[in-house]
Amino acid sequence: MKNLKWFVLAAVCILFAVSWFAKASGGDGVDNSVLDAFLVTLAAFLTLAIMSFLYQDNPYYKFAEHLFVGVSAAYWMCLGFWSTVVGNLFPRISEGLSNFFLVPYQPGPLNFFFAIPIILGILLLMRLSPKGGWLSRWPLAFIVGTTAGLNFVRYLRSDFVKQISSTFVPLVVDWQGFGHFFSNISLTAGGPLVMMLTNLVIFIGVFCGIVYFFFSKEHTGVFGKASRVGIWILMITFGASFGYTVMGRISLLVGRLTFLFTDWLGIIG
Amino acid sequence: MRREVPLIITILVGTVLIISVFIPPLESLGESFTLFFDIIAVFAFFLGGGNLVRVHVLKLAKKKRDWPFSIVTLVGFGVMLAAGLFKIGNPGDIAASVTAEGSLFNMIYRNVFVPLGSTMYALLAFFVASASYRAFRAKNREATILLVAAFIILLGSTPFGAWLTIWMPESMSILEIPNLAVWIMSSPNMAGQRAIMIGIGLGVVSMSLRLILGIERSYLGEDGA
Amino acid sequence: MVHNNVGVIITLLVIAGGLVWLLVRSFRGKEIDRRVIFLFIMVSVAAPLLATITFKFTATPIVEALYDKIEALPEGSTVLLSFDFDPAMAPEVQPMANVVTRHCLEKNIKIVFMCLWATGQGQLEITLDQVLRRDFAHKIDGVDYVNMGYKAGNEGVLNVIVTDFEKMFPTDVNTTPYGDIEILQGVNSCKDMDLIVSFGGGRPGIKEWILFVGDPTGVPSAGGVAAVVAPQLYPYYPRQLMGLLGGIKGAAEYESHFRERHPNHADMDTPAIIMMGPQTIAHIVIIAFIIIGNVLFFMNRRRGARS
User: Fold this and answer.
1) Sign of torsion over alpha carbons C94, C100, C101, C102
2) Which of A68, C126, A32 is nearest to B110 (CA)?
C-alpha cells in the first residue's frame, strides 16, 4: 500500500513534467513560454487535485485545499492593505506615508479622527492575544452598530415598504371585448388575460405566503386555507430555486472542463 | 467597562447612522463613520490572516493530524503575501495596481487561486446530481408541486424545453415550456420570494432596533448578556 | 443545432442507454452508487463540450430590458460596472461582465469599473484583458473608462459613494488622483451615473446596490448574477431592478441578442452560448436521475406495503 502511494506520486510528477514539456514545446499547436506552460500545467493539476475528491478524500485534494486557504487569506489581506489602508487611511494620517506610497496626501482639520479606526483596528487584533481578547468587543460593537444603523432604514424602505407597495397591483383589466381579452396569451407577451392572471397570483401569493409565516395564530379555518395556498406558492418558489441552483452548479463544472479542454489539452478551439 | 463601553459604541454609531439619513447636515458624519467601518474591515482581514497563521503554526508545533499540509498553507500564505505586499514583478512602480498584468500576485491569482476556487464549487454539480437522485421524492402534494416547478425551470432554461413544445399552435403558446418557465419566475416565484423578503426585512429591522436599543447583547459574549 | 458530429451522437446514445439501464435496475429496486452518477454527469458535460453544440437564444423580457437600456443610452453617458464576484462564480458571471462591457464600449459609453469583492479586482483584470485590451485597444484609460478597483467595507462603501464618490475613491487603481481623471469630471456621486450594473452572486452584490444606491437615488440598477441568487432578486423587478441576467442562460441570451444586432461582433467570444450545450444535456440527465430516484422510491414503497 505504501509503495502504491509513492508510485502514484511518481506518476503524477512524471505526468506533470510531460505536460509541462509538451506545452512548452508547442505540442498543442500553441507557442507557450516555459513559464506559461508551467502555469497552465499547474492550474490543470490543481483542478484535477480538487476533482480527485469525487473518488475519495486523498492527499492531493488536501494539498490543494490547504494551498487554497493560505493563498486566499493572503489575497484578501493584500487587497485590503493596498486599496483601503494605503488608498484611504494613509493619505489622511501621514504626508510621509502618502509620499512613500505615491498616493496624494489629503490634509484636513478633522483628520485626527482617523485615529479612531486605527485604535479600534488594533483592538480587533487583540483577539489574537490570550489576555486582551475582551478588548476586541469595542471594534466589534462599532461593526455591529454600523451594520444595524445602515440596515435599519434600507431594509425598511426597500424590502418592506416598497415590496408591499409593489404588491398592490390592478387585479382586473379594462374590458374591451373577448377578442382583446384573449389576445397575446403567450405568458411572456403580457396580454390582458396573462396580466390579470400574473397580478392575481402575485397578490394572492404574497398575501398567503405572509399568512403562512404568521405563527401567532393557529392555522385553521380560512386562515389555514390561506396558509395552505401560501405553502404551495412557496413550494413553486423552492422548485424554481432548485432549478436555478442546478443550472448554476452545472455551469461551474462546464467552466472547469472548458479550461481543461481549451487551455490545457488544447482539444477545443 | 467590559460591557458598558461596547454598548455605548453600538448605540451611538447606530443612532447616528439612522439619524444621518433624515438630517442632511449629519450625512457627512454618517459617511465618516462608514469610512471608519471600512478601515476596521481591513483589520478584520488581518485578524483572519493572523489567526490562520496561529492555527497552522500550533498544528505544526504539536504535530497534529495532517500537520504536513499546514506547511502548504503557510507557504502559500507567505508567498502570496510577499508577492502582494512587495508587488513583486509588478510592471509599474509602487503606484501601479497590485493586480496588474504580469505581476507575481496576478500570476498566482490566475493560476492557483482561480482554478482552486472555481473547482471547489464545481464539485457541487456532482453532489447536486447525487442529491437529486436520493432526496428529491414526490412523497406528497407539496413535494410534487416543487418537483413539477423544478422540472419546468430545468427544461425551460434549455433549448430542449422549447423543442419539446415546438409543435404547439400559437393559440396554445401559453403552455410552451419556456413561456411557463418565464411565467413561474416572474409570478409565483416572485410572490413567494417577496413573502420571504418581507419576513426577512422585518426581521432585520427588528434585530437592528434591538441592537441599537441595547436589548440584544449576545454579540458581547457570555458576560455581556 | 448548428454543429453536430457522429462522436457526440454516439456518446449521447450511450448516456441514454445507460439511463434506461439504470431505470430498469431501479424497477427492480436496485440503488445506484454515487460514483456512477458522478460519471454520468461528467460525460454529459464533457461530450457536448467537445462537440461544441451551440444554439440560438431569444432574450427574455428581463434580459432584453438591460440590453435596451444600454442601447438607448446616448454616446458619452456614464455607466458604473461593479465586479462583485469571485472565481467560484466566474464561469457564470464573467461572460455577462464581458458582453455588457463590450456593449458599453461599442456604444461609446464611458465606464467606471469598481469592485466590492477583493476577488472582483482580479476578475476585472480578466475582462479588461479579454474584451478591452483585445478588441478596444484604442480606448484610453481615464478618458473612455477608469478602473477604481476594490474597497473594503461592503455596504459601507456604498453608503459613502452614494453621496461622495471621491471620499471613498480618492484615486483610481493606479493611484491617479480623482481630479486628474477626465471621465470623472462632473461625477460627484453615484447619482451622476446613468446606469449601475453589478455582476455578482453573493453578498455584497446587486441587492446591496439596490438598497443603498438604487432606491435612495433612483439611478437605474441592473444585475448579472449567478443562477443561485437570481430567483431571490425577482421581487425587485421591474421597479427597483430594471434588468437581470440570471445564470449562464441570461448570459447566453444577452450574447445572442447582442451579436445578432451588432454584426461587427459576429466573431466575438461567446462562452455562455457554448456552455449552454453541455448545460442542456446535464439538465436532461439530472431530470432522468430524479425520475429514476422516484421510480426506486415508489417501487420500494410498494414492496414495503406488500410485505
Assistant:
1) positive
2) C126
Task: Match 481578547 to its residue by C-alpha cell.
Answer: A133
Residue where a domain terminates, one of A89, A114, A136: A136
Distance, in Å, from the CA atom of C163 to the CA atom of B29, rounded to the nearest integer, reads 12
Structural domain total, chain C: 2
Nearest CA-CA distance, residue C210 and chain A, Å = 8
* Count of all residues that appear for chain C in the document: 307
Of B161, A256, B182, the residue nearest C275 (C-alpha): A256
Q: Quick check: is A10 in a domain?
A: yes
C164: left (phi over 0), alpha (psi -120 to 50) or beta: beta
C119 is a domain residue = yes
Q: What is the DSSP letter of B158?
A: S
What is residue A128's three-state secondary structure? helix
> DSSP letters along chain C, please?
-----HHHHHHHHHHHHHHHHHHHHHHTT----HHHHHHHHHHHHHHHHHHT-----PPPHHHHHHHHHHHHSPTT-EEEEEEE--TTTHHHHHHHHHHHHHHHHHTT-EEEEEESSHHHHHHHHHHIIIIIHHH-TTSPBTTTEEEEEE-SSTHHHHHHHTT-HHHH-SB-TT--BGGG-GGGTT--SGGG-SEEEEEESSSSSHHHHIIIIIHHH---EEEEE-TTTHHHHGGGTTTT--EEEEHHHHHHHHHHHHHHH-GGGTTS--HHHHHHHHHHHHHHHHHHHHHHHHHHHHHHHHHHHH-
- CA atoms lying within 13 Å on the CB side of residue B164: 18
Are A20 and A122 within one domain? yes
Please tell me which of the candidates C60, C171, C240 has its beta carbon nearest to residue A87. Answer: C171
> Contact, B193 vs C231, CB < 8 A?
yes
Examine the pLDDT at A106 and tell me if it is beyond 80. yes
Name the DSSP class of B224. Answer: G
Q: Do C41 and B157 touch (CB under 8 A)?
A: no
Strands (E), B13-126: none
Domain housing A174: 169-264
Domain of residue C191, residue span: 61-265
> Which helix or strand (DSSP H or E) is residue A234 part of?
helix A221-259
The distance of A94 to chain B (nearest Cα, Å) reads 16
User: Higher confidence at residue A24 or residue C282?
Assistant: C282
- Closest to C221 (Cα-Cα) out of C244, C253, C252, C200: C244
Which B residues 113-172 touch C at CB under 8 Å? 113-118, 120-122, 125-126, 128-130, 132-139, 147, 150-151, 154-155, 157-160
From A210, which residue of chain B is nearest by alpha-carbon distance? Answer: B195
Nearest to B160 among C168, C234, C284 (CB): C284
Q: In this predicted model, what pLDDT tens digit does every residue of C66-99 receive, in sequence order?
A: 999 999 999 999 999 999 999 999 999 999 999 9
C128 in the same domain as C255? yes
- Placement of cell 447606530 in the chain: B14
Tens-digit pLDDT profile for residues B40-94: 999 999 999 999 999 999 999 999 988 999 999 999 999 999 999 999 988 878 8
> Into how many domains does chain A fold?
2
Residue C1 lies in a domain: no
Q: Does A253 touch chain C (CB under 8 A)?
A: yes
pLDDT value at position C29?
80
| C-alpha to C-alpha distance for B159 and B157, rounded to whole angstroms | 7
Strand-pair partners of A93: none
Residue B78 in 3-state DSSP? helix
B190 and C CB contact within 8 Å: yes
Q: Verify whether the Cβ–Cβ distance B208 to A51 is below 8 Å.
A: no
- Per-residue pLDDT of C18-50, as tens digits, reads 999 988 888 888 888 888 999 999 999 998 888
Tell me, yes or no, whether C228 and C278 share the same domain: no
Adjacent-strand bridge partners of C245 = C224
Among the partner-chain residues A83, A101, A245, the one whose CB lies closest to the CB of C152 is A83
